[in-house]
Amino acid sequence: MANKELKVTLIKSTIGRLKSHKACALGLGLKRTNHCVTVQDTPENRGMINKISYMLNVEEA
Q1: Is residue 1 scored above 60 in pLDDT?
Q2: CATH number for 45
Q3: Long-range contacts made by residues 39-45, C-beta under 8 angstroms, separation at least 24?
Q4: Are 8 and 58 in contact (CB under 8 A)?
Q5: CA nearest neighbour of 60 among 16, 20, 7, 10
Q6: Domain tally for the chain?
Q7: What pLDDT is attached to residue 35?
Q8: Reduced to 3 states, what is the DSSP secondary structure of residue 9?
Q9: Which residues of 13-33 are buried (b: 16+ CB within 10 A; e: fewer)?
Q10: pLDDT of amino acid 2
Q11: Which of 1, 4, 8, 60 minimizes the C-alpha distance to 38?
Q12: What is the helix, strand, coil percentage profile of the chain, to 5?
């Protein structure tokens, strides 16, 4: 099985968000608005992405 990767970009600020949502953004490695990271497509990362999907832009890398 090939390791798929996802390109995740934070498009909305974490200011004023729930603590758990801020933690998900940090867990994905996103530090600021318009910051982009590449993460492995795992169930753990998918869960964090789904939780804060309203703040993210996700593409297959």
Answers
A1: no
A2: 3.30.1390.20
A3: 39/5, 39/6, 39/8, 40/3, 40/4, 40/5, 40/6, 41/3, 41/4, 41/5, 41/6, 45/6
A4: yes
A5: 7
A6: 1
A7: 97
A8: strand
A9: ebeebeeebbebbeebebeee
A10: 65
A11: 8
A12: 35, 25, 40
**Taking the model in full, what pTM does it have?**
0.91
Domain that holds residue 54: 5-60
Q: How far apart are CA 61 and CA 35, in angstroms?
A: 15
Question: Of 59, 58, 61, 55, which is closest to residue 26 (Cα–Cα)?
Answer: 55
**pLDDT tens sequence across 4-34:** 999 999 999 999 999 999 999 999 999 999 9
pLDDT in the model for residue 19: 98
**What is the structure's pLDDT at 11?**
97
